[in-house]
Amino acid sequence: MNKLINFIKESYTEMTDNVTWLSFKEAQDSSVLVLVASVVFALVIGAVDFGFNEILTAFYTAY
C-alpha cells in the first residue's frame, strides 16, 4: 500500500512541478493545425480512393 501512495504523491509532484503545460492559445493553435492537416489528408485519401474506383470500374466494364 505504501508503494501506491508513494507513486501517487510522486506523480502529483511530477505533474504540478516538473511538467511544462501549454498555454490555452498554444493548445488552440495546435488543435487547429491538427484539424486542418486531418482534413487535407482525408481529402487526398478520398481523391485517391475515388480515382481507383473510377479506374477499376472502367476496367471491369470494358471487358
TrEMBL record:
Q: Which InterPro entries match?
A: SecE_bac, SecE_sf, Translocase_SecE/Sec61-g
Annotated membrane-spanning segments are 32-52
Any one cellular component term from GO for this entry?
Answer: plasma membrane
Membrane topology is: Single-pass membrane protein
An annotated GO BP: protein targeting
- The reply on keyword Zinc is no
Which first-to-last residue range defines the signal peptide? none
Record's keyword annotation contains Protein transport: yes
Q: Quote one Gene Ontology molecular function term.
A: protein transmembrane transporter activity
Where in the cell? Cell membrane; Membrane
Q: Which UniProt keywords apply?
A: Cell membrane, Membrane, Protein transport, Translocation, Transmembrane, Transmembrane helix, Transport
Q: What does this protein do?
A: Essential subunit of the Sec protein translocation channel SecYEG. Clamps together the 2 halves of SecY. May contact the channel plug during translocation.
Note the NCBIfam families from the entry.
secE_bact
What binding partners and quaternary form does the record give?
Answer: Component of the Sec protein translocase complex. Heterotrimer consisting of SecY, SecE and SecG subunits. The heterotrimers can form oligomers, although 1 heterotrimer is thought to be able to translocate proteins. Interacts with the ribosome. Interacts with SecDF, and other proteins may be involved. Interacts with SecA.
User: What family classification does the UniProt entry report for this protein?
Assistant: Belongs to the SecE/SEC61-gamma family.
Q: What is the recorded name of this protein?
A: Protein translocase subunit SecE
The species is Flammeovirga pectinis
